[in-house]
Amino acid sequence: MRILLCDDNEAFLYHFGRAIMTEFAQREITVDLRRCDGGARLLEEIERSPADVVFLDIDMPEANGFTIAAQLSGRPQKPLLIFTTSMEDLVFDSFQFQPFWFLRKNHLEELPVVIDKLIAALQRTPEFAITIDGIIRHFLLKDILYFESKGHYILIHTAVNDEGEPPCFRAKLDEIAAQLDSPAFVRCHNSYYVNCHYMKRLDKQNVTLRAKKEIIIPVSRSRWKDTQDAFFRSKGSLKK
Length: 240
What we know:
Elements (H helix, E strand, L loop, with lengths): L1 E5 L3 H17 L5 E5 L2 H10 L4 E5 L7 H9 L6 E6 L5 H4 L6 E4 L6 H13 L3 E6 L2 E6 L3 E7 L2 E6 L9 E3 L2 H8 L4 E5 L2 E4 L3 E4 L3 E4 L5 E4 L5 H11 L6
Parallel strand pairs: 1-2, 1-3, 3-4, 4-5
Antiparallel strand pairs: 6-7, 8-9, 8-12, 9-10, 11-12, 13-14, 14-15
C-alpha cells in the first residue's frame, strides 16, 4: 500500500507519519509512506507512481489542498483522499471532492478508526491471487505494473516493490490474461501484459510505464493497435 502525506508543517509531517506507520505495524501491514512538504511535491510523487491513499492538508501556501484535490480527481487512478486540517469550517467545502474522510488535526485520536476503514475499503479492491511455493499470494490489481513471461514462468512486477526480486511462478501469459480478463491490462507484446493506468508514453516500439524509475516495455507490431487503444482509454480520451 502506497501512502502520501502532504503538509507544509514539517513537524506535523514527521509525527503524523510515525503515527500512521505505528497503526499499520500494529495490524501487520507493510506500507510505503512518503512525506511531501507541498502540493508540487505531492504531484511529482503521484506522477512517479500512483498512490492508494493521500492525506492532504487544506491550508497550504501556493496551492491549497482543494486545488491539489481537483487535479487528483482528474486522474484515471484516483487515490482515496483524506483531508487533514485544523480549519473545521471547511468540512462542507471539501465534499465536492468526494473525500474518503475529513480528519481534524486536533482529533488525531480518530486515526485508528480511519485506518481500519481504509483497510476495509482497499480490501474490496480487485486482486490477483496465485499460489507460489505452496503459499497463496494476493496482489491488488492497481499495484501491478506488468506481468512478464520468461521461459515457462511469469514474473509479477509491482509498484509496491518494483526494486526487489519480483514474485515468480510457473504459468503462461495467455492463462493470466484469461484469468484477469480486465480492461485495465493490455497485451502489448508476447512476453508482456501491462497495467494501462501506469502508461506514461507510447510509440510504435515501446510503452513507458510510470514507477519509481521509468520502465520501458517493448510493443510488438501485431499488438500496436490494441495497445494504442488501451493507452488512450487510460487517458480518458478517444483523440488519436
